[in-house]
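User: Could you check the structure of this?
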Amino acid sequence: MPKMKTRKSAAKRYHVTGTGKVRYKKQGLRHILTKKSTKRKRHLRKTGILSPAETKRLKTVMPYSVK
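Assistant: Sure, the predicted structure tokens are below.
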């Protein structure tokens, strides 16, 4: 059985922590920032944690990184 390929676009967007959680950078902080509040921009700077249901779906595109 050959190795499964990792979707490189997903590998660049998601990173797995040591405990197995999946981190990602939140969207919406690239442009059109003047209409967004300072509080909203500050919260978008933090990394998000993927839900367990979404982590299970990610296993199909990143088979060797998600436990």
